[in-house]
Amino acid sequence: MKTAIAKLSVASCCLVVLIGCEGKRVAGPPEKITLALSMLPHASLVHVAVAKGYFAGEGLEVTLQPHQFGKPALDAMLAGKADLATCADTPLVFAVLKGQQISVLATIAGATRNTAVVARKDAGISTPRDLAGKRVGVSRGTNGEFFLDTLLVRHGVDRESVHLVDLSPADMPDALAKGEVDAVAIWNPIIFDLQRLLGDRVLTFYADDIYFETFDVVARMEFAKQRPGAAKSVLRALLRAEALVRDHPDEARRATAAALKQDLAQIDATFGQFDFRVRLEQSLLVLMEEEARWAIRSGLVPRQDMPNLLTSLETEPLLAVKPAAVQLVR
Amino acid sequence: MHLRKRFRVNAAISFGAILLLAVGLGLSWHASSRASRAEDLAKALQQQILERGIVKDEYLAYREERARAQWYAKTARLLDLLHSAGDAFDGPDERETIGEMAAIVERSKPLFGEIVEHPDARERDERGRALPNALQERVSTKMLLLYYDLYSHANRLVESASRRARSTQKTTLLSVMGMIGAVLAVTIINALMTSGLLERRIMRLRDGAERVATGNLGHRIAIEGSDELAELGQAFDNMAARLQETYAALETKAAEVGTLNEELHRQVVQLGAANGELEAFSYSVSHDLRAPLRSIDGFSQVLQEDFGDRLGADGEDALGRIRRAARHMGQLIDDLLKLSKVTRAELHRERVDLSEMARSVAADISRRDPKRQAEVRFADGAVVEADPRLLRIVIENLMDNAFKFTSKKADARIEFGTRDDDGRVVYFVRDNGVGFDMAFAGKLFGAFQRLHSTVEFPGTGIGLATVQRIVHRHGGSVRAEGVPGEGATFSFSL
Known about the structure:
The complex is a heterodimer.
Chain A: H1 2-10, E1 15-17, E2 31-38, H2 44-51, H3 54-57, E3 60-67, H4 70-78, E4 84-88, H5 89-97, E5 102-111, E6 115-120, E7 135-138, H6 143-154, E8 163-166, H7 172-178, E9 183-187, H8 190-198, E10 202-205, E11 213-220, H9 221-226, H10 228-247, H11 249-260, H12 264-271, E12 280-281, H13 282-297, H14 316-321, E13 326-327
Parallel strand pairs in A: 2-3, 2-4, 7-8, 7-9, 12-13
Antiparallel strand pairs in A: 1-3, 4-11, 5-11, 6-9, 6-10
Chain B: H1 3-62, H2 65-84, H3 92-117, H4 134-213, H5 228-344, E1 350-353, H6 354-368, E2 375-378, E3 383-386, H7 388-405, E4 413-421, E5 424-431, H8 463-473, E6 477-483, E7 487-493
Parallel strand pairs in B: 2-4
Antiparallel strand pairs in B: 1-3, 4-5, 5-7, 6-7
Helix pairs in contact in B: 1-2, 1-4, 2-3, 3-4, 4-5, 5-8, 6-7, 7-8
């Protein structure tokens, strides 16, 4: 576990990726873009596209900016350090509710069991209802927080009865192992690492019947408007990666494991939970609106009217490269 | 290969290609129907999903039992359709999509049940609307997500079915075009091969025929193979060989004919010489024999006139006989000379009216013997191309004979007429005189042949021989028919 986190920390420097051994070359000099990338399996399409040289094949010179997870990647993009970022839907919603001008170019993965609450049995927790009155570690403003709320609601646990402890995902394993928290709301592969580390001392609670999360490629709005060609090239490269995942999943898993510097077994345990398809669908809008309502009601953002989140979905690039992948009520 | 067999093989190939085309079309039609059914089913699924979403929203808004029942009915209908969709969709991706859709529908059932059964759901505001609560909201959102996911899957199915239908249409079109192309190619190649073969052979036949026609009888076509044209070539070669043999035989015969012609010419020359001698002989007869005869007759006349009273009756009778015999002999010599001239005279053909000629001859005879009574009839229009001088001799002989041999008849009848004998015009002189026995008909036309004594009917027996010779010189024929005591008919054609 520590090793994995250490690997991610070491990888915080910028990497320039120039891989052009496959795919068609586009005439003219390559277009440079910077991509803030979450080093997690949910961004597998990006990792595969990098590993297979699909970006270079589309005439892009991509500078990768690795991040431990999506929220810091998004923050880096919003800070102007990157043109694009990969992150889950919850940080996106928080960013929009805070007035950030972002454009979602596409969902690149979806899952219902990628996030869970891992709880210590010795803390007296055997069902989600037992979370009442317990300390639960969570990274605020992430899907982990929204998942925790969903789980609590699902099992009729009063949100106010749970003590939330804001933790970085990297700190959660230690915190849970040392008993600083009774449970953590976290995603893969940390769930996998915790289960392996703590064995039957922990229980894992999912809410897959009502929970759903997406992982998306987002851009600063001015990037999406000013560089539509680059956006389309990115999407084309991701669609090629989608085809590889569909047609040659083993190869895609190996590429992902190599990119994330994880054991293949680790990737195999979680890879199948994801629906790796490049798309922009109405479900993303519904999901984002639900999270926005939750964030506003919960006071996690300043009280405000529901914004029109449809304006944060940039459909033109994907419509240009794969119209059938856009299924939005417009 | 025989041409008939070749044509049959060509026809069989064309038929096979067309059969293949028909089978291909049948398979394409089957695939197209299947794709069409899949597309209809996918659209039916879309419709069911849409309607199920509508009744769910109605239930969430008003909690009406009708909407709840309809949602469950739509769910059951949707699952039925999905379970039966496996027949129409057999692609692994499509079946996976259908399986995922069924799983989504199954996942939505407990969620909807939760909405229906949740205690909070029964709380309503003053307007009767269900009040929202956190769980219901999450469940509703989840159901919405499932709805969109389901609809997205259905869209994929529709897209897949449409793609398959388009692909099937394209495959059908390409297959049909390809098969038509193949049929055309096979037909054209067959036609070209067959026509090329026929053309080469027919040209060879034509060249061979032309060579043989120009006299190269030794040329042979010698077409290889076993078809009808090869057989025709062989037959032609056989014919040329026979022709060559016949020509060789003809050349031999021609050489023989040449030899014979030379012999004939030699004989003609000899004949000319003989004729010359004969003419000289005739001249001698005419002049050398006639002079003694005239002397015999003349001196007999002198004896009769100067010494008749001293000769007595017997002497007178003897002298009379001598004189008659001398005159008869003179007549014989004249007739012989005439016959000789007839034979040698050159023919001068011109238009001759035999009817008029017969009338003229009969009139002459009547003038010579005005007392003679006979009914003479003439057919008009007997016109021929012949030598008029010789034809007159013919008519004179025949008419003289008719008058002569009817001289003893009180009701003598003589007729000059014509008749058609198998398309040939035959002229005849008929009488009702003494006639003759047909047993002697063959002798009639011989010189000096007589069936009656000169006492009974005077004559030299050369007339009919002269007639026959003249008719023969005109290329015709003559015949005699008679019945003793009833008359005779002499007919001739030219």
